[in-house]
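Dissemination and training. As part of the outreach component of the grant, students in the summer workshop were shown how a complex can be specified as a set of sequence lines and then modelled as a single object. The example used during the hands-on session is reproduced here so that future cohorts can follow it. Participants entered these lines:
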Amino acid sequence: MTMRGIVFLAMIVLGGTAGDLCVSRAMKHIGEVKKFTPRHLLGVLLRAFRVGWMWLGLALMTVAFFSLLAILSWENVSFVVPATALNYAVGALGARFLLGERVSAKRWGGVLLVCCGVALVWLG
Amino acid sequence: MKPSHGLRGKTGVLILLMVVFGPLGDVLLGKGMKPIGAIPSWSPTAFAHLFTRAFSSALIWCGIGSLLLFLLAHLLVLSWADYSFVQPASATSYLVVALLGVLWLGEAVSPMRWTGVLTICLGVVLVGGTPPRTTAQG
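and obtained this result:
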């Protein structure tokens, strides 16, 4: 794999996961949603889009999306997509160290099984 | 931190909505785009023609609606549940994709792919056995 491929793969995995983590932080900032009426949900969305983390998250996800489109122009999808299963492991690491979530051994076990499963699905 | 039944219940419902509407949206978009075919050239006129045809398809609009419901459920569940819980749990969508592929699109799913789907399900069961929220509400 070329250096260019490694850089783009890193942008997909790190950009996509960092984007998700930022969106998660934005929603935690809003607080637990307890009412699910359309009016209340609209209010939640409007508040969410006033949080800077949400926009940063969307920007990072956009970078990851276009990196995916770019890398698919020279690498096989059968290589790229299983490699992006790393998202699950990187996501758990990010959640542990950036969001302060408690990732137990049981949850780690589940995350690693999901990673392996996603890779198998795409290789199959 | 022991989660209440209410918290676990509403987390489960929203993750269920995510794993149904995410893949359903993808499949609807795929089905809607198939009859339109590949873009013949990269000119602005060809793109305008493609978008006009795409947005006149009911399947495309159903797909967009489905993906918007997925996004809404994703945002809402993250307002209380751990990202490290929601992300792997929502991988159940691979099972839904495989089932939609077999039952609706008539696709063949290889044994290796089924093995992958089962491995994901095992992982989701493990993650599902952990509390959905491990941080204090800020």
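The mean pLDDT of chain A is 91. Students were then asked to discuss how this feature might be tested experimentally.
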